[in-house]
Amino acid sequence: MQQLYDGKTKTLYDLGDGRVLIHFKDDVTGTEEGIDPGGNEVVGQIAGKGAAALRQSAYFFNLLAAHDVPTHFISLAPDKQAMIAHRAKWYGLEFVVRFKAYGSFVRRYGKYVKEGAELGALVEITLKDDQRGDPLVNDEALVAMGIMELPQVLAAKELVRKAATVIFNDLKAKNIELLDMKFECGSIGDQLVIIDDISTDNMRIVKNGAKVGPEELLKLTVGVQA
Q: Is the pTM of this model over 0.85?
């Protein structure tokens, strides 16, 4: 298999038939303050974290499919830390859906908003560019740079907002609060879909005010340990 991409938490391989294999690592991201799904640096490893993130992703991709939200997910792979997905065109963007003000949002706008303030399902878009600190970008800039056409940008924002709302409601029923999460979007033919993974690698969640880790989320959703 040809390696297409080696990221902080996943490695992507081409299966050669319009599909890719995504291997999940035990690495965790964060900042100098500790583990944080919004961080751009690998700050350590947690044994079993990759397997847990994989099972979480399968759970949420199947949940989205049940609500008619298109994704690239096909199936789990025989390797317990990998999944098979459709190969999609990637735009190099992250779409962050924020239900409450936390993390980088407060660091940017703390003069104007208090931590924990309700934001509805606010969508922010960033360029996935670690060297530049994943800068925010608006709709018109994406069009001007030729990254996406305006109808695509608007469609992508609605897609991630719908996906996040489905996940928010599912977690709420389990007494878990989703504060914010980030998605990546891609295209398979003319269809926009959710790609990458959906796990504690890219969501901020709490239960009774405490952060929920990968194995705990797995037990609360799938009902089994990693």
A: yes
